[in-house]
Write a structure and sequence with these properties.
Length: 220
């Protein structure tokens, strides 16, 4: 076996080991978030439940919706690829935020504007980013309280898709919460994967986030 062949094999092994480490970190992060979300969903469902049966039905519906959202964030491993199935931005948003809707008829999450197709190559990155934002809103922001509200508006500006994520009615925050860690790294990696940018604006009424994706990268 030649030196160049050995070098290529070692490089491939290192690349595979790094990918495995990243996947293990992502799995640990997801499991941690899932437990935190499940705890929050139990508390949220229990507030409005009149009996155990109603609590069971409400919580089961939330957890099933959460599972559906997670399914959209997974790559298509059947074909040994890393790209997920193509969908639309509205479908993805609605699947991800659905677990955080209240059981009664009082809707508190609104998605509006221009729906856009998301290609298989961009789906995982966009889904992971939106899921991270929804998780943070459920932990610290508007979706952590029954009176909170989330408005998500999608529009096109020049060659960009603009997503405005506006939270209100959540807990009052004196400053931005400390968010360093794998969640922040995952967010940044998701943005790099789509050539996106994200800006947070902390206002008295709540958090506003502006996300931009290049349309050409979003449809790939």
């Amino acid at each position: 076996m030649g030196a160049s062949k050995i070098a290529r094999d070692i490089t491939a092994q290192k690349r595979a080991a790094a990918q495995q480490t990243l996947l293990l970190k992502e799995m640990r992060h997801r499991v941690k978030n899932l437990f935190a979300l499940a705890t929050g969903l139990v508390a949220l469902s229990a507030r409005g439940a009149k009996d155990v049966g109603e609590l069971t039905r409400d919580l089961t519906a939330r957890l099933m919706a959460l599972a559906a959202a997670h399914q959209l964030t997974l790559p298509d491993v059947d074909n040994e690829g890393t790209a997920g199935t193509a969908t639309t931005l509205f479908s993805l948003l609605e699947a991800i935020v659905a677990p955080h809707e209240l059981a009664d008829e009082r809707k508190r999450i609104f998605v509006k504007g221009t729906d856009l197709a998301i290609g298989g190559g961009a789906l995982t990155s966009v889904a992971l980013l939106l899921h991270e934002l929804a998780t943070n809103a459920a932990k610290y922001g508007a979706l952590s309280t029954p009176d909170g509200r989330l408005d998500v508006t999608v529009s096109i500006q020049d060659d960009d898709a603009l997503i405005q994520w506006v939270e209100c009615g959540g807990p009052a925050l004196d400053r931005a919460p400390d968010r360093e860690g794998f969640g922040t790294a995952l967010e940044q990696a998701s943005l790099r994967g789509t050539g996106g940018t994200l800006v947070r604006l902390w206002k008295d009424a709540g958090l506003t986030i502006e996300i931009r994706f290049r349309l050409s990268r979003l449809s790939q």
